[in-house]
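Internal ticket #5521
Category: modeling
Description: The requester needs a full-assembly model to guide mutagenesis choices. All entity lines are attached below as received. Residue total reported by intake: 1573.
Assigned to: D.W.
Attached entities:
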Amino acid sequence: MLKILSSWLISRARNVLDKGHPIKIGLVLLFFLTIQSIAYSQSRVVRGKVTSTDDVEGLPGVSVVLKGSTRGTTTALDGSYEIEVPAGSATLVFSFIGFTTQEEEVGSRSQIDVVLGVDMQDLGEVVVVGYGMVKKSDLTGSVVSVRNEDLTAIPVTNALEVMQGKVPGLDLTKSSGQAGAGLNIRLRGNRSLNASNQPLVLVDGIIYGSTMDVNPNDIASIEVLKDAASTAIYGTLGANGVILITTKRGSQGKAKVSLNSYYSVQSLDSYDHIMTADEWVNLRRESRRTVGEWASTADDAKIFVPQQLENYNKGIYTDWANELISNGSQQNYQVSVAGADEKLNYYFSMEYFDEQSLFENDELKRYSGRMAIDYNISKQLKLSTNLMYTVKNQDRRRDPLNWANKISPLGPAYDEAGNVIPLPLGDATTVNPLNDQQPGNFQNNEINRRFFGNVSLEWRPTTDLNFTSRLGIDNTNFRRGEFMGVNTIDVGPDGRTVARATNGLASRLTWENFATYSKTLGDHDFQVLLGQSLWASNSEEYFAEGLDLLSPTMLFYNLGGAQDGIRINSFLRESSLASFFTRVNYKFKNRYLFNGVLRTDGSSVLAAGNKWGLFPSAALSWIMKEEGFLADNETISELKLRLSYGVSGNSAVDPYQTLGGLSKSTYAWDEGSSETASFGYYPSLIAAPNLGWEETATVNFGVDFGFFNNRVVGTVDMYQQNTSKLLMERAVPATTGFTSSWDNVGKVQNRGIEIMLSTINVDRSNGLSWNTDFTFAHNKEEIVELVEGDRDLANSWFVGYPISSYFDYEKIGIWQLGQEDLAGENQQVVGEIRVRDQDGNGTITPDDRVILGSNVPRFNLGINNRFEFKGLDLTIFLFARDGNMIVSEANASYKIDARENGPRVDYWTPENPTNAYPRPNAGTSPGNARYFSTLRYADGSFVKIRDITLGYNLPSQLTERLSLARVRVYATAKNYFVWSDMDGYDPERGGNLSFPMTRQLMFGINVDL
Amino acid sequence: MNTMKKYISKLLLALTVSAGLVSCEDFLAEDNKTGLTADGYYGTQEGIEALINSCYTPMRFWYGKEHGITLSDLGTDILTRANGMENPPLALYNSDLNGQNSQLNFYWTRLYSALNTVNTAVGRIPDSPLDDNTKTLRLAEVRFLRAFYLWHIVETWGGVHLSLEEVTSVQFTATRSSVDEFYAQIFEDLQFAMDNLPSTTSQYGRVTKPAAEAFAARMHLTRGNYTEAANLSKKVIDSYGFALVPNYEELWDIANVRNSEAIWTVNFTSDLILNRELESPDGDILIRDGGNNSHLHYLMTYDQLPGMSRDIENGRPFARFMPTTFLLDLFDEQVDSRYDVTFQTVWYSNKPGTYDIPFSGGDGSKSVTFAGGDTAIFATKYPLTDAEKDAMPYTVIDRNRTYNPDGLPKVRDRYISIKKFSEPMRATVAQQQGQRDAFVIRLAEMYMIAAEAELNLGNNAEAVQYFNAVRRRAAYPGFETDMEVAEDALTIDLILDEKAREFVGEQIRWFDLKRTGKLVERVKLHNPDAAANIQPFHNLRPIPQAQLDAISNKDEFPQNEGYL
């Protein structure tokens, strides 16, 4: 891929230089420098020729600078150069975009020929876009690139996690603290009501899907394409943005061997406070007092299980969550070898990753290997292959906290001998949450083997024309085995063992053919891309289950040992996409850029007749700095304006939705001696015969700037996205016999501003430096049109509000003593939740519900400060998410009826006239207490120092003695400082109490041989 | 330029070839091998039979299931909530009973889905490849089921949406039809069923002619068509060889569920797989693993008391529902065998050992040693003194332990438990799936319908014959005449009392009280939990808010009166 680019650049440079035009700011400057250097001329002249491993004809436009001076030149069309150097010792620095920089001691030589290696590690100012690369300065769309050094500065499990707070507009949160937990990713808000809002992720141009198991150390760069002009080349797949991951290749020179490793301790800062024995006993008493079943402790025997009451009186109780949670860990070992010569370029790596979460039996082991080879068969033909194999072995713990948080604390976890008591609460019902971690009692193991690879053939008949054919294969094969023994949380006391196994195969095939033609005519630069892509995916699953194993030692490895309840099932899902696309890039006088894309896609998941869609885009860019009036401006070192418009599509719905469907029913006839099956099929999914594309049209305006010799650089993007013909799974009236249906209706708008700023605050000659990267994104998401009217109550969609809005009564407190009459008008009594009578008509009806908030943040903010001094580096990264409302499980889990335990809350009693939570009441339940849902909303805003890293590069004297090229050691503290309104809870988790977010203390080392 | 042209044409050729390798139309066509579509499958013989089978399954959601029982037995004069009940508003008629009630929404959704399934069958059977006789037969079956589901809808929610056609495209409006229109359709469907169904079936569980007639008798009684109700109920009693099971206890023998008295049942089985319900595109819709769950819900938590542990015989106690004192007092257990058959009052120790049992007064305890099989718990509907209780060597739950003098439960986990739905054939005590068929209509109800219809027609002499037939069967041997009621003593209240004794837990009580206009009156008199709350509007349930929110013609389809 890079070679396409470099050869394209070279050919352009050649043509440009032929006509005597500079190709970029840097070159312009270098020309000036060259002219200046002539004025200084004295002493001797050095000549030579610069070639590359790819291009033995000679590299034009390479900068040749005398080290430590401003003197320099660029190579001519044939790669030759000539430079005057002073007498005495001198060093020349040869550099060019996309190639490794090389230094040559002049010594007494007068002829110095240089072969530059293609630099795969550092792509410099080249940005990967769909089906190609461009120089960053030639970008017309909104693209953010995350470089290699940012990618590996802080170790992460999931490669995409590093982008949190680094890419404005990308709202990224970790989904939980479970081992191997995924990420929630949104780019520029939500567009689709029900279809997927996940950005498209590609690895080396091939669709990878959202399961991100690429070794982060193998990644050279990640590009995020945000506006339609950039994503349109991916047509229907690109509506939610595109994330392009480019993996590393070898670079010219001797083989580079790297070793990376880290170890971290995962722990929990604090967990939500679940009621203690005293608190829960009081809650239960109060709940019975309310209904007249309890007046004093003399009534305790009526309301408690006898054994539990005895335990309580003896002071025996357990904090179950505390028994379950311990420290976890992460460890990672990675080795890579990379190198290249004239014919062959290779990269090879292996990784082992192990994560142990806070719970026993919750663990992920990942082994991955990767090999990338490029081979130049001839000058015109190149073969490339890029193969990845990942094996994941994961034990998933059934969330034990949900159970631990609700069972009575009035029992011992262990007996006197230290053994877990299976039924600790004296009621034959409640199993010990620790049962699941007893040896051999519970297993949920998934082994996932993924092969992901592509092979491509590049044919370059001339330097202007390039044809690529690429085949990508992504095959995942998994086995999920579950076994639940007696007394586990799922099976329960005296239950029958359950064994279950699921085998599945998912495969995705991508086949693409595209050609690029580049030409320069005078002031005009053209590049045309024409291509076609086919994509097919299918997944199959086979499932078997049985109860009551002959022996629990069989786990799920002998399903034939199941004696009852035997079930089997399987399914096949297939979908496909066919596409044709073209792109034209045009540049005039190096200042005015135009980019046009046209793509047409056909998708199998849409209804016949609506399968095909056409997605155009266009972008204009003006490099103002190139204009005469700015050329000499010393304050403004870079200035570019970008404007783009485009349409992209979304068809991310499950296959077969348009066809309607039937589901299975079970019944039995009694035919004398036996019962016979009478299975049936009933209409369960209503057909959507007109389902078509969802379309998003985006206008994007951006400014790229640099000031003070680029000590301050930044980008501002403003955009508006209008999504129409939304794919939505609408709630329909149940009187139809269905509860939902797919349809294309309504419109959603996203408007926002994104700012990215990098500053060099301090750059002292003594080596002290301080850089700051700042990102800010604000997005306003609103529905602008619904099927009918301005509100769809069944789906909780409202014109003018984000898609995920919370529509409910507004709690204003608790009915207090003295307000009996007022409460009574609403058929309520004191101690119950009081909500606002929005329409002021005196009674609370469903019409009094209002929009309380939404889960869309008002803004995201990231500030990264990096300090360096003599081998030491310190990075402090602050991340904030503001203004999103979340549904707090802790708030919603208040056990008003005290049938179960729950989080501690400040509840109303006649003696405690709070306005926070209603009075405990055994006469209702959380599901039925009026306006109970109003308790659950919480402000999910937070500010966190996501990580602090202190690193140290061993001095070169020391590394040389050890025969090592580089040694870096570092320590990172992740997630240690979180500020929010939710006491003891990290809102990034999103409100759930299961698998809380962890904090990590990591120690790592990077070694290059 | 020549070479350039050559290259471009080569390139275009390559692109064309690669694009042409697949035909786009074929490549993009969907072929759902896993799933089925209505037009494809229901046009086949196995498909239409599968559709008809599906019409039966939704009955399993209502009968033998916790919330179905809640909607048909709770909030009446005979049952109230025990401490495990998950939906107290339906027992209490408090203001939390409103459109947000999730169980009501579940039944609304499932019943309308069932209605759409039967409508689909009614519409598609005539064009199916079935032979003509089978077509008529199956049409009669599904039209019976349509009447059956419509009855549940109209009695629960009143004159709501009456749909008779398969829904093939989404509608966002709903229409209110009158209760009369519902019943007109119910009678039309039942007439077709009665005209075309056979007297018996080799596939027990399919609807038959007597089942249709029996249900029609219930419907006519509901609508005050007493002559038709009397005629149909007597026809069922006389014509098909049904007979009351000689004694009430045998009726509840798990080995005798398919007996001479069962006219219409919902089939459950011991096969865990065949005991399931529906699958949906989002996963299974199973309530507690499927099966008949009645056995779970009436049991108090005996296993928390000294000398007892949970076992299959005594059952898994969910403690959802408990009797009112009114129900207990309805029985004269000296002559009426149904008290002992219906209720469990003694638990025998299955966890022998020595225990301290607290004295009733509070201070001190008695030390008791149980051998296996010794009485461990004794429950009585009569009050005992503390001294009497403390003298007995086991846990005693007397009336005062459970109830206040006014009948309001004091505790909700220590009470006389209904045991007639017990499931002793389960593999483990934890198993929730029961295999007991749920009686929907059994012959005793025909006797009671005949009695009530004749009473309303003024034929007391005839009415009392049918009434006493049920009474006599319930009597202990030798006490038959003690159970008989005199001709002039028969009243509607006596019939309702008798139905309480005979049918408690059989999911008809709420409808009987509503039908006779006695719901509010009897709840106020006999159910202190709900007495203060119940109002006339509670004769209908609230329409789920999800439905009201989803329709576009909100003004034409308002909430039932009285509900906020």
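Resolution: model delivered.
Comment from assignee: The first strand of chain A starts at residue 44 and ends at 52.
Ticket closed.
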